[in-house]
Amino acid sequence: RFTHEFKFIKEIGSGAFGRVVEAEHFLDKWKYAVKQIAFQRKEDKVEKILREVQTMAKFDHPNIVRYYGAWIERPPQVFFFKFRVKLFWSIFYMPTVLCNYSLEDWLSENEQQPRDHQKMRVLFKQLVEAVAYIHSKDVIHRDLKPSNILFDEKDGIRVCDLGIATEIFEAETLSTRTITGTPLYSGPEQSSWRYGRKVDVFALGLIYAEMSVNMTSDVRE
Predict the structure, then answer these.
(1) Per its UniProt entry, which superkingdom is the organism in (predicted)?
(2) Which of 54, 56, 130, 163 is the most exposed place for a label (fewest CB within 10 A)?
(3) Which residue among 116, 138, 143, 155 is the active-site one?
């Protein structure tokens, strides 16, 4: 389906089991960011993918990455070599709005530049509004960090990567024994205690500090 509907343009980023590519739809000529993730057809893997699709389908907000559907198909040839994918694996595809630049990129490029605090407040307000909207849908993001905060073509904030987002009821009634999210931005209770919306608020505070104060990666850690 991907090769019939989209023209591959370039790879935006990649990880251990997949990548995000820029692609142009043959019919509407719009450019999209298409997430391509390799997975084994095991119950827990399929459940995680379905969770992200179902979570994204709930959201319609200007500061959250727009979702345009999803599907599963056999891996393209490149996945067998680059990601060591096996023949019996599948590839999950999810086109979203195209954003080529993240807050992580901006922080890295502007470590020594003076901050425009008025602009930072405007951007952070957009981020808070996005998280408040996520919470209003009874969902916790659980992995807020600069690399999951993107800029759109109008330099507005877009929150992305809801792959480990969870229903608030699930998070508040289960005591998790596995670390979720990125340790640097995870709330203290996130690794060993029942938790709720506050884990996202904790991450927001750290992100706002990075946006407001010049600091190197060593200082952040």
Answers:
(1) Eukaryota
(2) 54
(3) 143
